[in-house]
Design goal:
Helix content is 40%, strand content 46%. It has 149 residues and is of the alpha+beta class.
């Protein structure tokens, strides 16, 4: 009987420790995971990798960029690589805030240079985005870009 009680106590202790470790492990990497996904998304755009870009955007993805008059969707964003050549970029000042168990608000500054219609342009923008976790993958659901003057 004493042996059974010790075994049960040990199992409960191990289960409790494993649950605490899993909770800590799941909570900590969210900002790092989402920032890494964001950087991968920019690389996919720069490399004109439509397959990766499409896989990283949620099916209900929407975007709004300053100067436009309508929302864009996933198809618009994926096909934008045909019209805009991203030459270089720098991402900084990342903030990732969990807004729900499977959702995060991401803000950051991007400085980038690109070509469109044969003309080179440079921009500095603040991005606000919502990312959601679908299974084990983080996908971008919404993006808004605001130019910094």
């Amino acid at each position: 009987m004493k042996r059974a009680l010790v075994a049960v106590a040990l199992l409960l202790s191990l289960a409790s420790a494993a649950a605490a470790q899993a909770k800590q492990h799941a909570a900590k990497p969210v900002p790092a995971q989402v920032e890494a996904r964001e950087r991968k998304l920019w690389e996919a755009f720069k490399n004109k990798d439509k397959v990766t870009l499409a896989a990283m955007l949620d099916g209900g993805f929407r975007q709004f960029e300053e100067g436009l008059s309508a929302f864009g969707d996933k198809k618009t964003e994926v096909n934008a690589v045909d019209d805009f050549e991203l030459i270089s970029y720098t991402l900084s000042d990342f903030t990732v805030i969990s807004i729900a168990p499977n959702a995060a608000l991401v803000t950051y500054i991007a400085q980038y240079e690109g070509k469109s219609g044969g003309e080179t342009s440079k921009a500095k923008s603040v991005f606000g985005e919502v990312w959601i976790r679908a299974g084990s993958e983080w996908k971008e659901l919404y993006m808004q870009e605001t130019y910094v003057k």
